[in-house]
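Re: weekly structure request thread

Next one in the queue (102 aa):
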Amino acid sequence: MDVELGQVVKSLVGRDKGKHYLIIGYEAGRVLLADGRSRPISRPKKKNPKHLQPYRCMVPEVKERIRQGNLNDTEVRNILNTFLTTNESYPHYLRNSSDSGS
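Done, posted below.
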């Protein structure tokens, strides 16, 4: 499964099942996830990429800010909130075809 920095994903397995995160890095075959609240950038969640559902949502500016280390938790929360509200309005545009109506 190909996932990129700055991509929005949903957890499919574990205690955090159903939560949305932003990919902020990689470490030893795992992806590092942040949501800006329970998982801030300073303490990211490590998760197997097979346990994630990636969305097509990608903001190039965010990817660059992650690489530079200029992203903060408030921005992560804003990105996820914008994605979730837009996702409700335009499910056919931002969702994967495998994510039917949740």
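Residues 90-95, 97-102 have pLDDT under 50 and may be disordered. The helical segments are 60-68, 73-89, 91-94.
Next request, please.
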